[in-house]
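#structure-requests
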Amino acid sequence: MERRHDRPRAREEYERGLPDYHDPTGGFGGAAPAYSALTLRIILSAVAVVLSVGGAVVFAVAGILWGTALLCVLAVGSAIDLGWVIHRKRRGEPG
C-alpha cells in the first residue's frame, strides 16, 4: 500500500503498525517488514533513566564531575526516548 506524503497518517494506519521500509527487496523476496518492540523500548529506557540518575548521584557524592555530567546527559537522552516511545504507544502503534 503506497501512502501519499501530503496527508497525515490515519489512526488505523498506526493501529495496524508502521512497517520498516529499510529493505528495498521486502515486497518481492526480501525480509518481511519489521515492527518496533515498543514495550521493550519503554522498559529499557526506564531502566536506563533510573540507572543513569543513580550513577550520577553516586558520582556527584564522590566529587567526579565528568562522570556526573556524562550520566546526566545519558539520563536526559533516555528520558526523551522514553517520552517519545510512550507517545507512540498512546497513538496506537502495536509493539
